[in-house]
């Protein structure tokens, strides 16, 4: 296999940050060096946001919300501008796709899908805004009045690197639709595609102050979350970081939406043939090199089918092409960073020490000496008390667990600190539906897996608070006010 190469077109560097609707020189001199996870070569650089840049962005957002036209703009005009942003993103999908594949290592097809998802969220929220009823009459017998939806205020969004343009759009588009102003802090990894998206937002003609996009590290993110000028924080990331967001917001009772980690289970019923679900199960477990919060990383199968399923999954993992993300035939690219590869390799050793059996993978690909690659790895003979079955690994690692009957399968699936997603695979759809209703998770797929673009997404337990996407995601950026017209 040839070593991965970054196409000769290279990757654009940036020397300014998008603050308050304008490109500004950064307050500090720290740079984010963009390094290819496929080749370990330096690709470019962008400025790292500082606390001073965040202060400027929040001040601009605060002024635009408190004194600007955006919150009171005719919703039809906000809707029109959201659609303009979607059109401008569409025009940049090829460049954003290339940038994301280069800087994060996502295979081209996946990268393109993520950029198209970003545009979709802007159009979807424009549609929701068009259908929104901002005032409703209420009568409660002893009184009556009008219930109003009003924009919540200045919103801080913090997004991870595994799909930044789509994740920012999933947060920013409904916030702007509601009439809020936004300061977005994407992760240090994958900053170029997010700044290209900032160019799309600028080209769409949103008013000054309404949007800022400031890539930065964790410390700067904490400064943004704790900023007294921020009314709501919408965060996607680890459960540990989500707890810290809650701590920082608690002092001023700032609103929060948290989409956090997962350890999702797939229950395989005995009545469904393997060939009806195996490709989807593999993609759901190790797609994007397992760097997906909703990945199906626990596969639950009956004792009588355990060995056969392990054999089938192991063969599928072994046949998965790992390598150059710019090669259209590649299914899995590298992990995003060396530290992430080190973390995953630590879990591979942990799984062995806990007594799990490596049925496929288990290390670095021998033919890829450069880059932060890990083989898709399947653990068998796993019990639910093992750390590899309980902790989010965020790599291409899947565990297979046995169950005696379906009641035990549900108990194992629910025996987790997390509750983000899950799947039931069964020919009997009534059975699948009944099992899904017993799973303590924010979403459960019947004979499928993935993400839902137009419906609420979020988790139970330590997988988060609130929902993103669909009408529920838009509602999260409103406050409600009751104007009492008569009452006791």
Instruction: Provide the helix percentage.
Output: 25-40%
Largest sheet: 7 strands, mixed
What is the CATH architecture annotation of the largest domain? 3-Layer(aba) Sandwich
Task: Give the averaged pLDDT, no decimals.
Answer: 95
User: How is the largest sheet built, in terms of strand order?
Assistant: 14-15-16-13-12-18-19
* CATH third-tier fold name of the largest domain: Aldehyde Dehydrogenase, Chain A, domain 1
The beta-strand count equals: 22
- Fourth-level CATH superfamily of the largest domain: Aldehyde Dehydrogenase, Chain A, domain 1
Structural class: alpha/beta
Instruction: Please report which band the strand proportion falls in: under 5%, 5-15%, 15-25%, 25-35%, 35-45% or over 45%.
Output: 15-25%
Active site: 259
InterPro entries: Ald_DH/histidinol_DH (IPR016161), Ald_DH_C (IPR016163), Ald_DH_CS_GLU (IPR029510), Ald_DH_N (IPR016162), Aldehyde_DH_dom (IPR015590)
Domain Aldehyde dehydrogenase: 23-482
Pfam family, one: Aldedh
Question: What order do the helices and strands come in, and which of them pair?
Answer:
Blueprint: E1 17-19, E2 22-24, E3 31-35, E4 42-47, H1 51-66, H2 75-104, H3 108-131, E5 135-139, E6 144-151, E7 154-159, H4 164-178, E8 181-186, H5 191-204, E9 211-213, H6 218-225, E10 232-236, H7 239-250, E11 255-259, E12 264-268, H8 278-286, E13 296-302, H9 306-318, H10 338-354, E14 357-360, E15 377-382, H11 387-390, E16 397-403, H12 406-414, E17 418-419, E18 422-425, H13 429-436, E19 445-446, E20 460-461, E21 464-465, H14 470-475, E22 478-486
Parallel strand pairs: 7-8, 7-10, 8-9, 10-11, 12-13, 12-18, 13-16, 15-16, 18-19
Antiparallel strand pairs: 1-2, 3-4, 5-6, 6-22, 11-21, 14-15, 17-20
Helix pairs in contact: 2-3, 2-4, 2-5, 3-4
